[in-house]
Amino acid sequence: MVIDKKQIDSSNENHLAQHRQRLQFLKNEISDADTVIEKLSQFQIAIPSWALGTGGTRFGRFPGGGEPRSLEEKIEDVGLLHRLNRSSGAISLHIPWDIPKDGNAIRELAAQHGLRFDAMNSNTFQDQPGQPLSYKFGSMQHTDPAVRRQAIEHNLEVIQHGIALGSKSITVWLSDGSCFPGQLNFRKAFQNTLESLREVYKALPSDWKMFVEYKAFEPNFYSMTVGDWGQSLLYSSKLGERAFTLVDLGHHLPNANIEQIVALLLMEGKLGGFHFNDSKFGDDDLTVGSVKPYQLFLIFNELIEGMDARGMNHASDLGWMIDASHNVKDPLEDLLQSVEAIKIAYAQALLVDRKKLAEAQEKNDTVQAQEILQAAFRTDVRALVAEARLKTGGALNPIDLFRKANVRQHLIKARGSKTFSTGL
Ligand SMILES: [Mn+2]
């Protein structure tokens, strides 16, 4: 089911008067509202193909029905999100969960929905049916060169699928590590992983990037072979100029200063992309901005500061993607909330008075520095984000329209109440 322009226009009619009032108030408050709105219109966040179904934990999963049964239906779902918010114009695929049978047809279908293909994702953290060798003790780090070769070949295949779809990057997340002291020689595990990654890097097309994603713990609980940003930076530096570190907000130890990590990676020209989510304890994969919106704002504050310092384009020079799971929410509503939270944090960070902040920092005026940051954070920028949607043909209130149009009920009717989306 596709929401058409007429439905969007008629829904917007209901919200327009209130929206105009809010926007006018905000335009009186801030000086460069139109610049912010323009930047918001350009900012797109990729949706991963595995986030369209209900998530779960190792204890259980409670699907809500109407989940996409195929790659085509996943693309339809992302197309629907993009139609509503005009900010989800890319999809990130996972191999082998989303192997396209006909690359050209899939590419065409995505184009019809205004979508491009973001980073491709490989999977050497699970054994697939019929796979000759097991990843039980790691993939690229494995003591057996035949297992490493299998993992390399899989990544090369992922690149081939990506080329067919017009993707320009591959994200490698390795679950490799160890669960017990003594299990692993750390140095050998690092060297094996580096050599394996080098084989994949060598096969990258010249206009591609490789993102090396790190994670502090889980599934391995004693050591992770790409466990933090330092390790990822080591790999990406040794690999070459088209290899970058990817930051997933849930992949840190508690209370890590993620905004500082972002600032330093940007300084080194080694930040490649972002996986957005939120967490209370670990890799909780909760809705972006649902637990720590101030942290999200502080991260965007550093992103803008660091990207501007290097003359980078906010919309296109880093990979932006949501990587979350939805255990108790409708996945599509959750994704709409996540995209909205990201754009709110981005808009607030754009409001930071950078000149005044730099002056306060020079004078060690910590009170003034906090005043400047919190003045931006406490500005209600939702009307700016809504205006960016309105100008680009989206819905003023996407969740309201999603509910009033009974989208989920239509999806359940079309796809069934017991559908199972691959990937979770
Ligand atoms: Mn991730």
Description of the molecule:
By secondary structure, the protein is an alpha/beta fold. It has one domain: Alpha-Beta Barrel (TIM Barrel), CATH 3.20.20.150. Helices cover 48% and strands 10% of the residues. The protein is built from 15 helices and 13 strands. The protein has helices at 5-29, 33-42, 71-85, 103-112, 145-165, 186-202, 229-239, 258-267, 293-309, 331-350, 354-362, 366-377, 382-391, 398-404, 407-415; strands at residues 47-48, 56-57, 60-61, 90-92, 116-117, 120-121, 169-173, 177-178, 209-213, 223-224, 243-248, 271-276, 319-322. The strands form 4 sheets. It has a 6-stranded parallel sheet. A 3-stranded parallel sheet has the order 1-4-5, covered by helices on one side. Strands 2-3 form a two-stranded antiparallel ribbon. Strand 12 (271-276), helix 9 and strand 13 form a beta-alpha-beta unit. Helix 1 (5-29) packs across helix 13, helix 5 (145-165) packs parallel to helix 6 and helix 8 runs parallel beside helix 9 (293-309). The longest helix is centred in the first third of the chain and has 25 residues, at 5-29. Manganese (II) ion (MN) binds next to loops. Residues 213, 248, 275, 323 line the site of manganese (II) ion.
